[in-house]
Amino acid sequence: MSNSKKMWDGRFESGMAQSMIDLSFSLAFDQELIEEDIQGSIAHGKGLVESGVLTEEEYSQIVSGLQGILADYKNGVALWNDGDEDVHMAVERVLTERIGQLGKKIHTGRSRNDQVSTDFKLYMRHRAEEILVLEKNLANTLLELSKKYIGKIMPGYTHLQQAQPIYFSHYLMSFFFALSRDICRLKNFLALHKELPLGSGAIAGSAFPYRRKQVAKALGFEAPSPNSIDAVSHRDMALEFLADLSIVASTLSRYAEDFVNWSSSEFSFLTLHDAFSSGSSMMPQKKNPDSMELIRGKSGRMIGNYTALFTLVKGAPLSYSRDLQEDKEPVIDSVKTVKVILQVMQEALETATFNFDKMENRMLPALLATDLADLLVESGIPFRDAHHIVGSLVGEAAKQKKEFTELSDEEWENAGVKSPKEIKEKLTFIYSIERRNIEGGTGSKSLQGQFEKAEAFLNSL
Q: At CA 328, angle to CA 310 and CA 229, rounded to 5?
């Protein structure tokens, strides 16, 4: 049994079993919250001054002590010992050792329940702001590349089969607008979770005349939480945060999958910079798109973190149970992961070489089948009949191992196409693309509209 003293062990005759220590201590990961814990304690201390629990002089000593602990932590000074359960108790222990009995006053009117909830909310809000910066940087890169490569064409795919010709910029802008919603989700997250838990105590609220509005303002919250049970027991903020980060990761993963394919010799659309590739330990010729593969893999890990937390909270009784200690590891892990993959995606795209000659050379005439059907409709043929005519031409060409555009004018006429020579002259990739200047389409005028919307969005952030 452990004989080390705990700050809560007045009721207990023996120390914790080592196995219990191994099970329950969380300092190894929750020390990530040290900055938020100290910010929270400094604001809480100010509230205690206003409540008459602390004098200004005592508060000044406590603030100086807390700031010194944070500075030492950032400088790599060894602060913790084997008896420290979590960062919150560890900071209080070190503070008490440094400034004496006064350090024990800082926890007046506060439970670890509302302290941890506050620290964790601050942590998620701070990290969300950092992630937003990375998302905005990637969005800017996508917009810049889209403008840079305006006019470059490529085959668009559905079912991994060539579908219709598109501008490469149109493809990149699809990434931009998907990412813009990821940005909006995080902004909505920040707008929703803006209430201060401190003052809620363990379950019923603090018994001291604690000025919660003042503490909320000091910590960047808009208002105190309206219900103490809700404040300390629910983890919907963490669930929403993990959901948002999982969606970001999924967005990146889908494009990473395309970029892995594009890097293959079968596509050759994309060459990643050496800095974002790796070789083989056995095959010297290999250049692998590991950056994109790792982004794709990390997204699964983040979805797993979200699932783990959802499983954790679904059966946790109110108000607080120790199960909820398990909320932090998945969040901390997902934060670190999403920040890395956003940075890698941005830098990999900025340094990549896009092989537009290969993109254009790979484009099959079959990409124009829809345009032929549209032209037949414009000549007065009902769409279903036009679809059947084009389908029969494509099928006949396949039998002859040709492209449908290589069939003779006579074969086109027999299928029901009038003036085949005239129509064939129209059927080009650029013609197809520029027919699609409808809002949201791939045409150049539409793209200009997309650029304007994207710029307006970024300027609004």
A: 70
Mean pLDDT of 101-126: 95
pLDDT of residue 43 exceeding 60, the answer is yes
What are the tens digits of pLDDT across the range 295-314? 999 999 999 999 999 999 99
Split at pLDDT 50, 70, 90, the class of 332 is very high
CA triplet 322, 326, 331: central angle to 5 degrees? 145
Counting every residue written for the chain, the total comes to 461
Q: How far apart are CA 391 and CA 336, in angstroms?
A: 51
- Check whether 5 has a pLDDT greater than 60: no
Q: Which helix (H) or strand (E) holds 162?
A: strand 161-167
Q: What is the pLDDT of residue 18?
A: 79
Q: How far apart are CA 350 and CA 5, in angstroms?
A: 55
Residue 17 pLDDT grade (very low, low, confident, very high; cuts 50, 70, 90): confident
Q: What does the alpha-carbon distance between residue 95 and residue 440 come to, in Å, rounded to a whole number? A: 59
Cα Rg of the chain (Å, integer): 30
Give the fold, CATH level 3, of 113-209+221-361. Fumarase C; Chain A, domain 2 (1.20.200)
Residue tagged 């003042």 (tokens): 214
- Structure-block tokens of residue 169: 């910029």
Q: What is the mean pLDDT of residues 418-444?
A: 93
Q: Which residue has the tokens 């941005």?
A: 346
User: What is the CATH number assigned to the segment(s) 19-108?
Assistant: 1.10.275.10
CA 163 vs CA 20, 233, 264: distances in Å? 60, 51, 20
Q: So which residues are the catalytic ones?
A: 159, 280
Out of 1.10.40.30, 2.115.10.20, 3.40.50.150, 3.40.50.10490, which CATH number does the structure's domain 365-427 have?
1.10.40.30
